[in-house]
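User: Please predict the structure of the protein below. I'd like the answer in structure-token form so I can feed it into my own downstream comparison script.

Assistant: Understood. Taking the following sequence of 492 residues as input:
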Amino acid sequence: MGSVFSVSVSSSFDPVLSRFLDCTIRRAKHVRELKDNLKALETELQQLIQTKNDVTRRVRVDEQNQMKRMDRVQGWLQEVQDAEAEVDELLQLKSQQTDKLCLGGYCSKNCKSSYEYGKQVAEKLKDVADLRREGAAFQQVAERVPDDVADEIPLESTILGLESTFDKVWKCLVGEEVGIIGIYGTGGIGKTTLLKQINNKFCNELQSFDVVIWVVVSRVPDFEKIQEDIGEKIGLKGESWKTRSLQKKAGDIFKILSSKKFVLFLDDIWSRINLTDVGVPIPNSKSVSKVVFTTRSFEVCGSMKADKHFKVEYLRDEEAWKLFEENLQSEVLDHPDIPQLAKVVAKECGGLPLALLTVSRAMSCKNTPQEWRHAANLLRNSASQFAEDFPISKQQLIDCWIGEGFLDDSNRSEVYDEGYYNIGILVHACLLEEEKDKEDDKGDYFVKLHDVIRDMLLWIANDIEKEKENYLVEAATGLTQAPVIGKWVGVR
């Protein structure tokens, strides 16, 4: 009877006893291993700090190159900072807690206190070790901040009359299989304004291009600056990159742009730009990337091997007047006599946007008819009372050049070839205009000077060159004999 009862009691309490023993052993383990864990925690913390310093140095280098630290790296650094503070708190209790140990560290004078401290030390040791391994495994600590596809360029005013050319260029950019696009026209005609408008449209519409790059070239190209402008947009920044050779920077640019669908705007180029030397992959009719440039010379379109080229034309009278009018203060045109005078002044600008903007801003506050009549007279008389819009046949122009000694007529056939070649250069540079609706008896187009260009040339001849060459200019007067002798003094 008693035997059966004894077995029954023993069977009921075995699980409880087992759990008690396990708990006691685990608690004793935290006490027994306390000294070793404290030493390991100090060592692990030093290694974690070293890893943190390495990661921080890498982050600083990347941030100097305009990169942004990754969120998980920032989070890890914060966790390390918190862990350092927590370990420091535990180590401040080290002496106090180890003094409680007895029997060679296997027991404690305050088992509960030693157990709780030992448990905290063991857990923190594991946390610190895990943090160290996580930091050591970082392959990348920062990433490039994605830029906007295009940077909006400030545009003081739009120019009416460019819409047609805008639409043609935009169609080539987003639709047609065209790699290189040239936009040409005389200075001040609105080429840069047009290009800015196209660039800014990329800021407002979703497109499939990865990056849109704007570079100003000018008459003497600075290839180092061109590369830096491109590099700035595609993430190649910092002094370490800027000090690399042009060839190595070209390789860096080429490597990045080859993997992107890009648009490169080159504003105001005067001669051929070797895209390969810069590092730009050369687009073709089958490529997805585009290069668009502006130039004053049609010949540059040829040397750049443009797949399409578009000429920016002078503004028509109604477009010119709208551009002129919008830059005047409204009260100026309230005077009944001024609007008609203002239209005369606007017409004298010959449809050239730069001239229209310059003159209209100069006259924006002139609110008396006398001032406007004076301005109109100045513009009309600025070119020495000459007849405008006078076409001349190409052969007649060459004859004049021969007569002036500009061309050597020792070889009669070759001199005309040279003359036609020079006319072609002037036409392509937009300094002469071909009259497409007027031909001479040989089927050749007539040419003429645009009003503003003609005014400028006569002003140069009459004023700027006065003290150098001392030319006497009498335009469209039909002279059959030399002017009065007084005018010839000191001139040729």
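That's the full token string. The chain has four domains: 17-144, 163-311, 317-381, 392-488.
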